[in-house]
Prior knowledge:
alpha+beta; Nuclear Transport Factor 2, Chain: A; 6-stranded mixed β-sheet; 6 strands; 23% helix; SnoaL-like domain protein; SnoaL-like; NTF2-like_dom_sf
Amino acid sequence: MTQMAKYPHEVGVKVGECMEAGDLEGILSLFHPDCVICFPPEEPPKYGHEAVREIFSELIAAKPRIVNRVTGIQECGETALLQHDWRFEDAGGNLIAEGKSTEVVRRLDNGGWGFFIDCPLGPPALATNI
């Protein structure tokens, strides 16, 4: 089901709600169509809704509860930079994974906000040959 984040800081919360509900279409609606996802960090970035579908299909299967806490935000017009502390928990509240993310969100065509650049474990390191 289509979701809408009215404010930049709501995007992660809405994605978490969709994950708990097993709502892959809702998650897709919270990502910009031209998004980039830097996950897993040892692999090249992935692009667009196909990447979102691939990554989140696997995550939803584990049925985690995601806890997000925005630790930084800077808005500029139709774009915002966010930092989150996050954790995935199982149904018993046991830790599955945690991290500190960096994301760029942009205004979507529906008037809401969605992830444009999603780096769940922070930005990728520079290549050594740069």
